[in-house]
Design goal:
The protein is mostly helical. It has a domain at 182-187 and 222-330. Helices cover 67% and strands 0% of the residues. It has 22 helices and no strands. The chain has helices at 9-16, 19-22, 26-38, 42-48, 52-55, 59-75, 80-94, 97-100, 104-114, 120-131, 141-151, 158-170, 179-194, 205-212, 222-232, 237-244, 254-266, 270-277, 287-297, 300-307, 310-314, 317-329. The longest helix has 17 residues, at 59-75. The N and C termini lie far apart (80 Å).
Length: 330
């Protein structure tokens, strides 16, 4: 009878006050809570969570309920109303005593499930609630790295970026990521930023710079910095700038910098070109490389940037004149 009255709040309230309700088994309450989630009856879920049997649910039972809530959220598709009610059902479940005793591994599993929720908004709403559980503070740096890799599958947007940033700073182990983990995440974040169909390179930038500000980012090797630079140099000036500010970027070889400049030229990204021109190795590369870049770009502004570099000032005037001629012709 209680299951049939899940959407009739006043009737359910009266039933929950009956002596028989206090004698319901944990299995019976589990079924009722799962039904409430499936019916998106969040007020019923909140009422059921107050029953004695619900307060005695084990951490394993609560984990099962939370997974079910998020799966129902995914099943809600693109209906924001249904996704919201499912998230509210989950909020009530997260307040149960059994949720307070979940292990860090259980919370990690739940967070991975949350990141599969279709609605970006409610995906991170669920994640935020899970991060408030006591065990979230004990999630390892390896698990944090794995969670962020999953989060980076969400396309760049203000909602997703804010959600990922909140996830980062809600987990203490985030600041303890090692250089290998940061390098892998930077590569994934770089690909995420450049996958956006938007011309706004601000999308994904907040998440990317947060990684660059980690202590381990200051310890990255030149190769670890070079890999994400190869991804962003043709497309994204903001991310290129963030990477160029890392210590290892100033230690890149002249050959590596020349390749990055060529990539910026091919991507027609003058801003990336200027950022890369500020690297230490840029002033030691052969002047012919810079002139070659200008000839490919056919932009006077790029030519001026190249000519300001020390090697170009030492280059024969005939070569510079040739580059200038090509620029004027195009």
């Amino acid at each position: 009878m209680m299951r049939q009255l899940l959407r009739h709040r006043h009737a359910l309230d009266m039933l929950c006050q009956l002596p028989a309700a206090a004698r319901l088994s944990s299995d019976a309450v589990m079924l009722l809570l799962q039904a409430a989630s499936q019916e998106f009856a969040y007020k019923a879920a909140r009422k059921l969570c107050g029953l004695a049997a619900a307060q005695q649910l084990s951490s394993e039972q609560v984990e099962t309920l939370l997974h079910a809530c998020m799966q129902d959220n995914t099943a809600a598709g693109h209906s924001d109303c249904m996704a919201l009610t499912s998230a509210l059902c989950m909020a009530s479940t997260c307040e149960l005593p059994g949720a307070m005793h979940l292990s860090s591994h259980a919370v990690t599993r739940l967070l991975h499930t949350a990141l599969t929720v279709d609605s970006v908004m409610y995906c991170f709403m669920d994640a935020e609630q899970l991060c408030r559980l006591p065990a979230a503070t004990a999630i390892s740096s390896a698990d944090v790295a794995s969670l962020l890799q999953a989060a980076f599958l969400k396309p760049p947007s203000q909602t997703a970026d804010n959600g990922i940033e909140d996830l980062m700073h809600s987990l203490p182990a985030y600041s303890q990521l090692n250089s290998t983990q940061v390098a892998q995440l930077l590569r994934a974040a770089a690909e995420r930023c450049c996958s956006s169909s938007s011309n706004d390179d601000f999308e994904g930038y907040i998440v990317f710079t947060s990684l660059c500000e980690l202590p381990a980012a200051q310890q990255l090797s030149t190769e670890q910095v070079l890999q994400p630079l190869k991804v962003v140099a043709p497309h994204n000036a903001r991310c290129t700038k963030a990477l160029c500010q890392l210590p290892a970027a100033q230690q890149l070889s002249s050959e590596a910098v020349a390749q990055l400049l060529q990539a910026a030229v091919k991507g027609s990204s003058m801003q990336c070109f200027e950022m890369l021109s500020g690297l230490a190795a840029a002033s030691s590369s052969a002047a012919s490389q810079w002139c070659s870049c200008c000839r490919q770009l056919w932009m006077p502004v790029a030519l001026r940037a190249c000519c300001s570099l020390w090697p170009c000032q030492q280059h024969p005037s005939s070569a510079v004149a040739m580059s200038t001629k090509h620029s004027q012709q195009h």
